[in-house]
UniProtKB/TrEMBL annotation:
<feature type="transmembrane region" description="Helical">
    <location>
        <begin position="154"/>
        <end position="175"/>
    </location>
</feature>
<keyword id="KW-0812">Transmembrane</keyword>
<feature type="transmembrane region" description="Helical">
    <location>
        <begin position="54"/>
        <end position="73"/>
    </location>
</feature>
<feature type="transmembrane region" description="Helical">
    <location>
        <begin position="215"/>
        <end position="239"/>
    </location>
</feature>
<feature type="domain" description="Ion transport">
    <location>
        <begin position="20"/>
        <end position="245"/>
    </location>
</feature>
<keyword id="KW-0472">Membrane</keyword>
<keyword id="KW-0631">Potassium channel</keyword>
<keyword id="KW-0813">Transport</keyword>
<dbReference type="Pfam" id="PF00520">
    <property type="entry name" value="Ion_trans"/>
</dbReference>
<keyword id="KW-0630">Potassium</keyword>
<dbReference type="InterPro" id="IPR005821">
    <property type="entry name" value="Ion_trans_dom"/>
</dbReference>
<keyword id="KW-0851">Voltage-gated channel</keyword>
<keyword id="KW-0633">Potassium transport</keyword>
<feature type="transmembrane region" description="Helical">
    <location>
        <begin position="20"/>
        <end position="42"/>
    </location>
</feature>
<dbReference type="InterPro" id="IPR027359">
    <property type="entry name" value="Volt_channel_dom_sf"/>
</dbReference>
<feature type="transmembrane region" description="Helical">
    <location>
        <begin position="93"/>
        <end position="119"/>
    </location>
</feature>
<protein>
    <submittedName>
        <fullName>Ion transporter</fullName>
    </submittedName>
</protein>
């Protein structure tokens, strides 16, 4: 029975089997939940259909709770988590399992005495139900692989960006503070201008008025164009490498992550 449940919960590779129908059911339920969250934000719709929203919420939470429990229970059948109990616990701490948990956990919090004001904030975690679909969309696992392999380069570029933001905000603060003490009141306060300038968004709510400040702002804006092209290049390189690798080695198992060799005429 455990193996059968594990098979049903695994992402189907064959349209028409039990696992495939279960995948379609879960994907549909996730999409309907996201739609319900969006519609609930419209006051007159929420007031008119509150009972229907509540019934659908209870139904979804029951399904997601049972799914989560069964996934954790059958996790030791996955080669990576084959050790009983410790393997199940290790699986429960994986990103996808944590997303599964956050999809229904806020619903149970009032029953353990959580402050209702905090609950209103935690209800936003229901949007995590959208991320549950990552298990069924291969493109999202592809993006995840690229980010994992390029995490060091991305971290370096983000650190460099943070340093440049701090330096540019400090310079602009000392240049513009006298002329605009309300807008450039401190270095942290100036960082809003720095972010808008380095990202080349330029909202226009805060801008330098002194000649030196305008000259400095122009240089920082030009640097920002090249700076934000850096992570773009890193990700483009990562996607190119990953596409080439998958073409050479074949696909990956959605459950265990192991390479599935492509059968050729040589075999």
């Amino acid at each position: 029975m455990k193996e059968k449940i594990y098979y049903i919960l695994s992402v189907s590779k064959k349209p028409g089997d039990t696992s495939w129908y279960f995948d379609i059911f879960i994907i549909t339920l996730i999409i309907l939940n996201v739609l319900a969250i969006v519609l609930e934000s419209i006051e007159h719709v929420r007031l008119q259909y509150q009972t229907q929203f509540d019934i659908f919420e209870i139904f979804s939470v029951v399904i997601f709770t049972v799914e989560y429990i069964l996934r954790v229970w059958t996790a030791d059948l996955i080669p990576t988590y084959k050790k009983p109990l410790t393997g199940n616990l290790k699986f429960a701490l994986t990103p996808l399992a944590l997303i599964d948990l956050l999809a229904f956990l806020p619903f149970y919090l009032p029953f353990i005495g959580i402050d209702l004001r905090l609950l209103r904030v935690l209800r936003i975690f229901r949007i995590f139900r959208l991320f549950k679909i990552a298990r069924y969309v291969e493109a999202l696992s592809f993006i995840n692989s690229v980010f994992k392999k390029k995490k060091e380069e991305l971290a370096i570029s983000l650190i460099f960006t943070a340093f440049l933001l701090l330096i540019s905000s400090a310079f602009m603060y000392y240049v513009e503070n006298e002329a605009q003490p309300e807008n450039f009141s401190s270095i942290p306060g100036t960082m809003w201008w720095g972010i808008a300038t380095l990202t080349t968004v330029g909202y226009g709510d805060i801008y330098p008025v002194t000649p030196l400040g305008q000259f400095l702002g122009g240089i920082i804006a030009i640097i920002g164009i090249g700076l934000f092209a850096l992570p773009t290049g890193i990700l483009a390189s990562g996607f190119s490498d990953e596409i080439s690798k998958r073409k050479q080695q074949g696909d990956y198992c959605a459950t265990c992550g192991q390479t599935i060799k492509v059968k050729t005429d040589e075999y």
